[in-house]
UniProtKB/TrEMBL annotation:
Hydrolase keyword on record: yes
Keywords: Endonuclease, Hydrolase, Membrane, Nuclease, Transmembrane, Transmembrane helix
Protein name: Endonuclease
Source organism superkingdom: Bacteria
Biased composition, class Low complexity, residue ranges: 81-121, 134-143
Single annotated GO MF: endonuclease activity
Segments of this protein annotated with the region Disordered: 81-156
Transmembrane segments: 12-30, 36-59
């Protein structure tokens, strides 16, 4: 007799037992004046619950002892013996083909192409005033890059602009600009990218301040006779 036949017989017996108990429950319900419909419902409910319970408890398949797991069926490897490689083992991936030497040589050439450097527009002063300016030759470019702006030996007409009206320029920084020959707004307004880079690197203790506070943009407004919100505060005595 097979396992399937034995399990079917067990299930049938469980449900017969459950049906008999359900019949007894229905008879007890009738004797308790529950009515035929209520007695039938209680009997069917008891039959269904008990049949499922009996089947689960008595007919569930039990694993056989001594059955080996798929892992234990593997052939043990004897010490010193080289295990054989299965036939379906994936083969090693083929090595990637080297790229042509011509394409490798072309890459650095493309990356070494020089990029055009943006140059800020200079604000030119009147020719008559430029003729009076005692120009000082700019210093050679530093190792950090850039070129020193054209400096003046002294302010034009003996009076320098109030460079403190530029946000980011305090009294100490204004004195440092005077030492570098910077006295007027139009000088700062005419700086190009290389000159801004030189000033950012050579303002001792204030590196990066020129580009960070946009001195050139502020100086262009002030050189044209305009005002900024910060310059109004300086003129009103609210700053410094």
């Amino acid at each position: 007799m097979t396992d399937v036949t034995m399990q079917d017989g067990c299930t049938r017996k469980c449900w017969i037992s459950a049906a008999l108990i359900g019949l007894v429950v229905a008879l007890f319900a009738l004797s308790g004046h529950k009515g035929i419909v209520a007695a039938l419902l209680l009997g069917l409910l008891a039959t269904g619950l008990l049949g499922a319970l009996f089947t689960w408890m008595a007919c569930a398949p039990v694993p056989r002892l001594g059955e080996r797991s798929p892992t234990s069926r593997l052939t043990p490897v004897v010490e010193g013996e080289v295990p054989s490689v299965p036939e379906h083992a994936p083969s090693a991936p083929a090595p990637l083909m080297a790229a042509p030497a011509a394409s490798e040589a072309a890459r650095p050439a493309a990356s070494e192409a020089p990029k055009p450097e943006p140059v800020a527009a200079k604000v030119e002063t009147p020719a008559a005033e430029r003729a009076k300016e005692p120009a000082v030759a700019p210093a050679a470019a530093e190792e950090t890059g850039g070129s020193q702006p054209v400096a003046l030996a002294q302010p034009r007409s003996g009076a320098a602009d109030n460079l403190k009206e530029i946000k980011g320029v305090g009294p100490k920084l204004e004195q440092l600009l005077h030492e570098l020959g910077i006295y007027h707004f139009d000088q700062i307004a005419g700086w190009n990218a290389a000159e801004v880079g030189w000033m950012d690197e050579n303002l001792k203790g204030f590196r990066g301040r020129v580009s960070r506070d946009d001195w050139v943009g502020q100086a262009r407004i002030l050189a044209a006779g305009g005002e900024t919100e910060f310059s109004k505060r300086v003129e009103d005595g609210e700053v410094y």
